[in-house]
């Protein structure tokens, strides 16, 4: 999954980004790669399944970017290999006056659990984009913690890969939600802007760190910040290359 990082399936992947370097392209790349493998030498169209929990990105944009790589999301929705859950159409933050513990995100967990059960036997991917917005619009942190913990446990039990995107608004000052997610994840993919600012040749850089639940796997290319890959965004995706070179890694 996600070459050139060669991540295994069945993991919990935390993707963090910054305002100067949004990680949208990695989420789109993950969804596209997973769904494209449905018809890539595999006659069983139900062998792959994606559940997209969308908080802030419109379905129109997901479809538009997929079409650039000749992927028709409407076909996958009709075939049942893609299910998109518009989170905010199902739940709303509790009133600010609420002081007792709440479970307002449970309906989203229940919906996701049903999609995992329906996709039994398939290679499953769940994408939560993005968890930060839930906090920003008023969902209590304990609710988000319980939801992400339960979601990661359900995905592990079902053998599904879970990708969670979290925005780092103040680089160098991680928030409480980040530390909670770090304890849940197998790997942490960190997308950062350049200290010198974005240029036409380089859009940002990506480091890959172990998480609290890291699986020892020699095929995974862990990359500290000192050896982070740089990337350049293209119309359809991104090109990765080592620092100081223009030679593409992929």
UniProtKB/TrEMBL annotation:
| Signal peptide residues on this chain, from the entry's feature table | none
Q: Name one GO biological process term.
A: tRNA wobble uridine modification
One cellular component GO annotation, for this chain's record?
A: elongator holoenzyme complex
Please state the pathway this protein functions in, per its UniProt record: tRNA modification; 5-methoxycarbonylmethyl-2-thiouridine-tRNA biosynthesis
InterPro entries, alphabetized = ELP6 (IPR018627), P-loop_NTPase (IPR027417)
Query: Family per UniProt?
Result: Belongs to the ELP6 family.
What is the protein's given name? Elongator complex protein 5
């Amino acid at each position: 999954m996600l070459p050139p990082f060669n991540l295994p399936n069945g993991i919990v992947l935390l993707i963090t980004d910054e305002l100067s370097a949004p990680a949208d392209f990695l989420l789109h790349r993950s969804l596209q790669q997973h769904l494209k493998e449905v018809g890539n030498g595999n006659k069983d169209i139900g062998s792959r399944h994606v559940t997209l929990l969308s908080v802030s990105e419109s379905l129109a944009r997901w479809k538009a970017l997929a079409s650039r790589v000749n992927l028709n999301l409407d076909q996958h929705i009709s075939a049942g290999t893609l299910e998109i859950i518009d989170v905010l159409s199902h739940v709303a933050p509790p009133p600010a006056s609420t002081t007792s513990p709440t479970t307002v995100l449970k309906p989203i967990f229940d919906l996701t659990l049903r999609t995992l059960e329906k996709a039994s036997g398939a290679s499953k991917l769940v994408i939560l984009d993005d968890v930060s917005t839930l906090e920003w619009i008023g969902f209590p942190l304990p609710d988000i913690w319980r939801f992400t913990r339960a979601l990661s446990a359900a995905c592990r039990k079902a053998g599904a890969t879970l990708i969670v995107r979290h925005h780092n608004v103040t680089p160098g000052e991680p928030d409480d939600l980040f530390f909670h997610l770090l304890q849940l994840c197998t790997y942490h993919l960190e997308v950062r802007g350049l200290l010198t600012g974005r240029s036409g040749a380089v859009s940002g850089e990506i480091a890959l760190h172990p998480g609290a639940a890291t699986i020892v796997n020699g095929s995974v290319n862990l990359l500290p910040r000192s050896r982070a890959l740089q990337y350049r965004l293209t119309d359809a995706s991104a090109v990765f290359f080592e620092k100081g070179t223009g030679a593409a890694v992929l």
